[in-house]
Amino acid sequence: MKKEYQAYFDTYFNLFSHATPEEIAIIKMQVTIKEYGKKEFFFKSGEIQTKMGFVCKGLLRRYYINDKGNSITTGFVNENKYATDYPAFIRQKPTKYFMECLEPSIIIELSYEHIQDGYKKFKSNEMYGRLIAEKVLTIQTDRVESFLFENAEERYLNFINENAAIMNRISLTHLASYLGIERQSLSRIRSKIAKK
């Protein structure tokens, strides 16, 4: 095993501080780690996502294709976050999204079957699953509410504040799409803020 992989596994297993040594031993046997190249997909629209991904290194973009054939960015997933379309994953239904690597990425993967098995065997796994679900729900709710209660400039400023680690790693085109505005509008907002 590559040395860097061990460090990634250590970071991942630290998330299971509530787990017993027996639980950790079982999880260690169930997870795999995989390297993805830039532009490779973790999953594609129409597929059933069979594995939950934990990003150790890299950056992914979640998007869908609208009825006009445009790619609409709905999120970014960087280090120490989960790559998933969680509602489709837990129901094992085909996803409507693409999850594409914007950079070479290293992802720890745990299968749906192993996750469900862990819920049945260990009570603490259910708690951890609930925490993931709450985190995903909060991210999705915050995104919807940003469109309801904030203007484009406020959405941009909030994105900068919450995502400083990836600002220089994503294109303006993807960012504009995520914010729900044209790229020219984003350029105007950035110019206006720079003059303040």
Write the layout of secondary structure elements.
Blueprint: H1 3-14, H2 21-30, E1 32-36, E2 41-43, E3 51-57, E4 60-65, E5 71-77, E6 82-83, H3 86-91, E7 98-101, E8 105-111, H4 112-121, H5 123-149, H6 152-162, H7 172-179, H8 183-195
Antiparallel strand pairs: 1-8, 2-7, 3-6, 3-8, 4-5, 4-7
Helix pairs in contact: 4-5, 7-8
Instruction: Profile the largest sheet.
Output: 4 strands, antiparallel
Largest beta sheet: strand ordering = 1-8-3-6
Secondary structure: number of strands: 8
Q: Give me the secondary-structure category.
A: alpha+beta
Helix proportion: 40-55%
Secondary-structure element order, N to C = HHEEEEEEHEEHHHHH
Q: So how many helices? A: 8
| Percentage of residues in strands | 15-25%
Provide the gyration radius in Å. 18 Å
Dominant shape: elongated
* Topology-level CATH name of the domain at 3-122: Jelly Rolls
- Poorly predicted residue ranges: none
Kindly list the characteristics that best describe this protein.
196 residues, four-stranded antiparallel β-sheet, alpha+beta, Jelly Rolls, elongated
What does this structure look like?
- The protein has 196 residues and is of the alpha+beta class.
- It has a domain at 3-122: Jelly Rolls (Sandwich), CATH 2.60.120.10.
- The chain contains 8 helices and 8 strands; from the N terminus they run H-H-E-E-E-E-E-E-H-E-E-H-H-H-H-H.
- It has helices at residues 3-14, 21-30, 86-91, 112-121, 123-149, 152-162, 172-179, 183-195; strands spanning 32-36, 41-43, 51-57, 60-65, 71-77, 82-83, 98-101, 105-111.
- It has a 4-stranded antiparallel sheet. Strands 2-7-4-5 form a 4-stranded antiparallel sheet.
- A hairpin with a 5-residue loop joins strand 4 (60-65) and strand 5.
- Helix 4 crosses helix 5 and helix 7 packs across helix 8.
- It is elongated, with a radius of gyration of 18 Å.
- The mean pLDDT is 91.
